[in-house]
Design goal:
Blueprint lengths: L6 E7 H13 L6 E2 L11 E3 L5 E3 L1 H22 L2 H5 L8 H13 L4 E6 L3 E2 L5 H7 L4 E11 L7 E12 L2 E6 L16 E4 L3 E5 L6 H16 L10 E5 L3 H8 L9 E8 L10 E4 L1 H5 L3 H20 L6 H13 L6 H4 L1 H8 L21 H18 L1 H12 L11 H13 L3 H16 L2
Parallel strand pairs: 2-5, 11-12, 12-14
Antiparallel strand pairs: 1-13, 3-4, 5-7, 6-7, 7-8, 8-9, 10-11, 13-14
Helix pairs in contact: 1-9, 1-13, 6-9, 9-10, 10-13, 12-13, 12-16, 13-14, 13-16, 14-15
Keywords: Signal
Protein name: DUF1570 domain-containing protein
Length: 447
């Protein structure tokens, strides 16, 4: 599912696995680098007056000072130097200071390859009361952070943070991060725990138990994807396991209510070439816990499919195709009839309330509808492609729709690209395919 803000997220419906699997069947039976990033050219700390005498530009001077402080902070993280990190804080014993020391402890548990900050920019000015509280020279900086997980990320992840800075006799220090919007990151999970295998990295909140089970699920998911998806993608998976749905929502920058229907989310940004290189699969712990082992495997294999596809294609496809392929990989090894897995959809078809066309983006929005039938519909559409043309043709069809003809070519319209792929790869048209698929749904509903 695509969201605004340049980030792409894909959700697998908890209801798909819970209702179709758990409820109806299963419930009963590279080296570390200190990276110096700059998002804009740093202004000079001095200017020359008309008389030729250098004069200090206060704003440029404080930006340069904070830039150096953040460089020091980043270097301390990569060197695992707690004392050096602490020296960047105004009051290590304050609420903010204690949180930051926990952040440091979490950061050094991660396999960081790079960790850096961009050039700070002034954010909104502090209010009168807040300025009186923290000091007259205090200001809020908006800063872009950038990091990679060594051996797991092929491209850096970026995030935005707001830092309140105060001036002391020995220089500028960090005093808070609550005076502006700051995105929650992996290292904000309480008492972070990290485990890994050759294929899977699991980053979890301290309250999460049995991290080894997530490793096993992740490893099997990578193998499941490799059996279907032929394009190279790295074959490595990062799984984030918060302790609560609220923690999950914080990691995604969303409300808790918006994740209630989902068991997991693939989260990450696409680069200018249309590829992702640092995706995370973020688990909804409550929904995931309601699943038995097979349902959990379906969810992880589904999301891993998104990771693989996003890392190796260059333009988007309609959601019915991306979610349908992910469910196809997820359910591929499940020994259940299609009528059981697609029960929510087929019940609607029996009551003449089924789809009249392939699912649209709105059909996958958990805030506006029950999304399990839409996932069923997308899955069965992809199954029909495999039934009629084979699994290899499915992959060729997807790649045709999802690949730019050249690096400089625009991505184009996903719907139009897919319509062309129907003709070029499958030798049919989308309307003809849709008619056959709807007929197939009606036949399944009669069984």
């Amino acid at each position: 599912m695509t969201t605004t803000g340049g980030r792409c997220r894909s959700r697998v419906a908890a209801a798909v696995a819970v209702t179709a699997l758990a409820a109806s069947v299963l419930a009963g039976c590279t080296g570390t680098v200190v990276e110096r990033e700059r998002t804009t050219a740093s202004p000079s700390a001095t200017a020359t007056s008309a008389a030729g005498t250098p004069s200090v530009d206060p704003e440029a001077a404080r930006v340069e000072a904070l830039t150096q402080l953040l460089d020091e902070r980043a270097a301390a993280v990569l060197a695992h130097d707690r004392a050096r990190f602490t020296a960047t804080l105004d009051d290590p014993g304050s609420g903010f200071g204690l949180r930051q020391l926990q952040v440091f402890d979490n950061l050094v548990r991660l396999p960081l390859g790079t960790f850096a900050y961009g050039t700070p920019e002034a954010a909104a000015a502090l209010g009168t009361d807040r300025a009186a509280e923290v000091g007259p020279d205090a200001w809020v900086a908006r800063v872009e952070g950038r990091y990679t997980l060594r051996g797991w990320d092929r491209r850096p992840r970026t995030y935005e943070t707001h830092l309140t800075v105060v001036h002391r006799p020995d220089g500028w220090r960090l005093a808070d991060d609550s005076d502006g919007g700051t995105q929650a990151q992996l290292w904000d999970l309480p008492d972070l725990k990290v485990v890994s295998s050759r294929r899977t990295l699991v980053v979890a909140s301290g309250k999460v138990r049995d991290l080894e089970s997530y490793l096993r699920l992740g490893d099997r998911a990578v193998r499941a994807v490799e059996q279907v998806w032929t394009r190279p993608w790295g074959a490595r998976l990062v799984v984030v396991v918060p302790a609560t749905a609220a923690e999950m929502a914080d990691q995604l920058g969303q409300s808790t209510g918006s994740v209630e229907q989902v068991a997991a989310v693939t989260d990450g940004a696409l680069d200018s070439d249309g590829r992702a290189g640092s995706d995370r699969v973020v688990v909804n712990p409550q929904a995931f816990a309601r699943l038995q082992a097979t349902g959990q495997q379906v969810v992880l294999s589904h999301e891993t499919t998104h990771v693989a596809v996003r890392a190796s294609t260059t333009r988007p496809v309609p959601l019915w195709l991306s979610e349908g392929l992910a469910d196809y990989v997820g359910y591929r090894a499940v020994d259940l009839p299609r009528t059981t897995i697609a029960a929510p959809l087929l019940e609607r078809v029996r009551h003449r309330n089924g789809p009249r066309a392939l699912p649209t983006e709105r059909d996958f929005d958990p805030s506006t509808s029950t999304i399990a039938p839409s996932y069923n519909a997308a899955w069965l559409a992809v199954c029909r492609i495999v039934d009629q043309h084979g699994e290899k043709a499915l992959v060729r069809f997807y790649l045709n729709a999802a690949s730019r003809p050249s690096a400089s070519a625009p991505p184009g319209d996903p719907e139009q690209n897919t319509r062309k792929a129907f003709t070029a790869v499958l030798g049919t048209t989308e309307p003809a395919f849709t008619r056959g698929w709807l007929s197939y749904l009606r036949s399944l509903a009669r069984t």
